[in-house]
Amino acid sequence: MWVLAFSIYISLKWLTWWKARTLFPHSVWRSAAYLFAWPGMDAESFLASKHVPKPEGLAWARAIIETALGAIFFWGVARLLPDREALLRGWVGMLGLILLLHFGTFQIVGLVWQTLGVDAVPIMSAPLSSKSLSEFWGKRWNLGFRQLSYDLIFRPLHRSLGAVGAGFLVFLVSGVIHDVVISLPARAGYGLPTAYFAIQGVGVALERSSVGQQLGLRNGVGGWLFMALWTAGPAFWLFHPAFVLRVIIPFMRASHAL
């Protein structure tokens, strides 16, 4: 899984750098830093020279706490669960890994770059604060891929396909990529990650429809509940049992988490 994920990541990251490298005058070291020392995909922001306010202490504290929590879940809580609850152990391990990397370590790296005056856009932006499904996927969750998909898919196609059609295509492409890095290494569950992201596309379309507006799915408590249920409800399709048991559990054992 890691070889596939890293290969796709490196290829897409190089593509973002290639498209942005001539847009802003910048030094060689900043290109090298973007390619090798920053996990984000927003090359234009990272390479551009602009005033960036230094991060506040609260941001540092939040990133450090989330890193610590991720480590506790991955190396501590998961091993306390019964051996027979392998799926639960795997899910706790994945939660810990996401906290450790996306919400913790990657955030710390971004804060370091911001302190140095580089506009390193955070990978995650408080996704649980989303007031709608559109806000969750478009402004808060995995902003690296969001920027990439916007530049390569949505922006070139939204005039011909419309915003809903281009947005749905983004979700399908994301699903296929996740199928490659999740189902292929697990040798099972093919199509389930793609189905998960197709459901997300349907949810965004429903949210933006007249029915969704009447139900209040784009803001407030109704919007938050719809976002939470729609993303978490079918999550078992995204990280299906074969992936958890055949990929995550062996990885946790290799990492001495179990």
Description:
The chain is mostly helical and about 260 residues long. The chain has a domain at about 125-245. About 75% of the residues lie in helices and about 0% in strands. The protein contains 12 helices and no strands. α1 (about 1-20) runs antiparallel to α7 and α7 (about 145-185) crosses α12 (about 240-255). It is globular. It starts with a helix and ends with a helix. About 35% of the residues are buried. The mean pLDDT is about 90.
How does the SSE layout of this entry go?
Elements: H1 2-20, H2 28-36, H3 43-47, H4 57-80, H5 86-115, H6 133-140, H7 143-186, H8 192-208, H9 210-215, H10 220-232, H11 235-238, H12 241-254
Helix pairs in contact: 1-7, 4-5, 5-12, 7-8, 7-12
What keyword list fits this structure?
258 residues; mainly alpha; 12 helices; globular
State the gist of this model:
The protein has 258 residues and is mainly alpha-helical. It is 75% helix and 0% strand. Helix 7 (143-186) crosses helix 12 (241-254).
Number of strands: 0
Describe the largest sheet.
none
Low-confidence parts lasting 5 or more residues at pLDDT below 50? none
Tell me the series of helices and strands, N- to C-terminal.
HHHHHHHHHHHH
Structural class comes to: mainly alpha
